[in-house]
Amino acid sequence: MSSNLGSSAASAAEFERLMRQHNQRLFRVARSILRDDADAEDALQDAYVQAYRKLGDFRGDAELSTWLTRIVINQALMRVRSRSRDRNVISFSQADAASPEIDVPDVQTESPSDAALRGEVRKVLEQRIDELPENFRTVFVMREVEEMTARETAAALGIPEATVRTRLFRARALLREALDRDVDSARGNVFGFDGTRCDRIVAAVLARL
Fold first, then answer.
1. How far is it, in rounded angstroms, from Cα 22 to Cα 7?
2. Whole-angstrom Cα distance, residue 100 to residue 124?
3. Considering all CA atoms of the chain, what is the largest pairwise distance in Å, rounded to the nearest integer?
4. Nearest CA to 76 among 137, 149, 127, 161?
5. Among the listed ranges 94-98, 131-135, 139-143, 164-168, which one has the minimum average pLDDT value?
6. Residue 1 in 3-state DSSP?
7. CB of 52 within 8 A of CB of 149?
């Protein structure tokens, strides 16, 4: 995409194509920081406006997608700081505090019950991702959900590739632990037999007797 678009109708149409091309990735990155769909949409819109106005400054030193991702990250972090003035916000460039990609196939012939189950699994996964520490959460989304390379992720966040790998490893471990706890807590209720099922079987047997 040309970096000297200006404000013509043609350049606006070209920018629309660019937005549609990058929307999913950039929304997910903003969402990973803000943990709110509406806030992420607002941050993404502000980032696009800023990017459009600064296209003339883009010199191609990095990939366009990386440049856009940096702008989105900055917009999202600004929103975090503005709504959490009383909370210490850790910059992505700071050192880490001492403190599976699950992709269910989109089967076209899946039954309504399978689709509902897949939706519930996705909700649980999204909730557990939201609970990850911010630095780990954003790296996880960029690397595992959007499948960005370690190099591209590092460039977008302004951190070393080694830090990306470390944060991804820790994010995976924390997510795995959380999902394991979910499975453990649900295990006792698998194939439940109480309630209406129990009554139905008892009544059927008594009727046969």
1. 20
2. 14
3. 85
4. 137
5. 94-98
6. coil
7. no
pTM: 0.68
3-state secondary structure (DSSP) of residue 37: helix
Burial of 142 (0-12, 13-18, 19+ CB in 10 A): buried
Here the tokens at position 130 are: 């939201």
As a whole number of angstroms, the distance between CA 25 and CA 38 comes to 16
The sign one gets for the Cα dihedral 16, 5, 49, 10 is: negative
Give the integer Cα–Cα distance in Å for 101 and 164. 16
CA distance 93 to 156: 11
127 CB-near residues (< 8 Å, 6+ apart): none
* CB neighbourhood size of 116 (10 A): 11
Residue labelled with tokens 């499975």:
183
Burial label, 50 (beta-carbon count in 10 A; 0-12, 13-18, 19+): middle
CB 5 within 8 A of CB 18: no
d(CA 201, CA 101): 41
Greater confidence (13 vs 155) lies with 155
What is the C-alpha end-to-end distance of the chain, expressed in Å? 78
